[in-house]
Amino acid sequence: MADNVISGFAVRFNDETVIAGEFRERIAPGAFTRTLKEKPDVVMLLDHDSGRVLGRTPTTLSLREDRAGLYFSLQVDPTTPEGQTALGTVGRQDVKGCSFGFRVRAEKWDDGGDRLPLRTITDVDLFELTLTAFPAYESTSASLRSDNNLAAQRRMREKMRKRGIAV
Fold first, then answer.
1. Which of 7, 112, 113, 114 is nearest to 54 (CA)?
2. CB–CB of 12/99 below 8 Å?
3. Residues 1-17: pLDDT tens digits?
4. What pLDDT digit, counting tens, does each position of 80-110 carry?
5. pLDDT tens, 122-137?
6. If we measure between CA atoms, which residue out of 76, 79, 67, 57 comes closest to residue 126?
7. ∠ CA 140-145-151, rounded to 5°
8. C-alpha 133: how far from its chain's center?
9. pTM recorded for the entire structure
10. CA nearest neighbour of 74 among 150, 9, 148
């Protein structure tokens, strides 16, 4: 069985989106620091559907916060219907974004002047990530990696090096 992994950024820091046409929102760097230290029980779902669980921390889902955002890596079980759906739709890039379920612990508001008000979320309780075709934050990402693909990429790079092509 191939080692099938879906990974990407569930959140990109400081990117803005408009929520319900009412206000702008962004997630501040460090918003996940506290909750990740507390080792939350986070599930990865398909389209926020709790009946379609793909993984869970810490067994099949790993999370880390870096300067860019909240990165995830999901070990997908291809023997389940949900796993097959995720591998197929993410592999084809029909689904290439993420969303997340959370409770806001701390936030800041700016009246926005001529623009919609801006909410900056600075601390959250994280409980869910989801793969979705319609993410609220378009800068999120999800892509498929498998051992077979990595091996093929390594072989191609080696062939290119032997031919004197810089990689």
1. 7
2. no
3. 456 999 999 999 999 99
4. 999 999 999 999 999 999 999 999 999 999 9
5. 999 999 999 999 999 9
6. 57
7. 150
8. 12
9. 0.83
10. 9
